[in-house]
């Protein structure tokens, strides 16, 4: 099972007895409440340092699903208000959704919801995940996608983009942002909006590290704003949030002469969510019709080397529970399963993850299993690299923009996994002297699998694009594992 590139293609129309004409888009939506109950169990909040116990619920967390159906194939997307869902959990969801050809499970990367990875429990050595709760989340993702698939209705789609870089704060140099908000608007046969898909590129951390009430953070208000305007389901996903995209620390008050709102206040999360909602409305209103059929998927199973000793220790201590594999030196080759932690084999551990490229008609979707630095979307690399960086001469990675041949595209970050930051190799900086003349390295590397991860992920995306049949109507399944 080495070269696990799987290309799912549309079969020849003549072989299919479909209830609708091939090429007709149908879409369905569904939603499940996934809020844990902090009165019944200890809920450890994810995203900053361990030891943050939830004291209440401010607003509900959701799993929001949509299914696209081209008459022959079905694509499911489910986005959860959580810090991340790992690949083994994603595969458990997929196993139970046989009627959907490919399912993308995304997390908004919420920093004010329960720990779903393990590293934010009572302390660094205490696993913060409630496994019963995770089982419930998986059940609800399955049932949301199933319901969305059961409810598909004919639809036309419109794709829009609106940009505002000022809505992003970049806390790590060099400054590089993806300030483009992208939307898909679906309308039914009566021209009523039947649902929205929104991609925006910012960490949900308006509430900061001191909050103890469960909340979906700013996406709660973005979605509420859009629901109020269009009276329809909304699926919200994040794109390139690494490097490090966060809301402003301060926003002006709603009332004239009012005190500004600051990070940590629900007022800031609401104000920011509304600003993102307004940008989404701009994007929706500027949208143009787009063909979203046929649906074709190319995915690559990837071995990602784990050089980060903290991650390896967390896995050995079973704070993080996911299988480890022998690192073979080749991201396309998964080595032997490591039986017990992987020992101290610093350079020999890998995890199994996934990169995918989905083509929906004229729209490309890059599915990236972690927090992509925006440099890897557009290529705004520092040139030349800072001499203090560890690999200033490293080869530049290919970017989403350079790889995807589609006229329109979206980036789904934390898609099908959360493996941490995906940092351009030239920017990697753990050894002195440090970039920008700093006394200490910038924040980022501690939450990355390692320096090899960006070249691996971007090369795997290129593999997926190359495996994708060029013809709009491919006729045969291409590669079996
Ligand atoms: Zn993050």
What does this structure look like?
- By secondary structure, this protein is an alpha+beta fold.
- The chain has one domain.
- The chain has eight helices and 25 strands.
- The chain has helices at residues 87-95, 131-150, 218-230, 266-286, 309-316, 375-378, 400-403, 453-467; strands at 5-8, 26-33, 56-57, 62-69, 74-80, 102-107, 153-154, 156-163, 169-170, 180-187, 193-200, 213-214, 234-238, 245-246, 250-251, 261-262, 288-290, 295-305, 325-327, 334-337, 349-360, 363-367, 371-372, 408-412, 421-422.
- Strands 1, 18, 19, 20, 21, 22 and 24 form a seven-stranded mixed sheet that branches.
- Helix 1 crosses helix 2 (131-150) and helix 3 (218-230) packs across helix 4 (266-286).
- The radius of gyration is 21 Å and the shape is globular.
- Zinc ion binds next to loops.
Topology overview:
Blueprint: E1 5-8, E2 26-33, E3 56-57, E4 62-69, E5 74-80, H1 87-95, E6 102-107, H2 131-150, E7 153-154, E8 156-163, E9 169-170, E10 180-187, E11 193-200, E12 213-214, H3 218-230, E13 234-238, E14 245-246, E15 250-251, E16 261-262, H4 266-286, E17 288-290, E18 295-305, H5 309-316, E19 325-327, E20 334-337, E21 349-360, E22 363-367, E23 371-372, H6 375-378, H7 400-403, E24 408-412, E25 421-422, H8 453-467
Parallel strand pairs: 3-12, 5-6, 11-13, 22-24, 23-25
Antiparallel strand pairs: 1-18, 2-4, 2-7, 4-5, 8-10, 8-17, 9-14, 10-11, 15-16, 18-21, 19-20, 19-21, 21-22
Helix pairs in contact: 1-2, 3-4
The structure holds zinc ion.
Zinc ion is lined by residues 109, 203, 371.
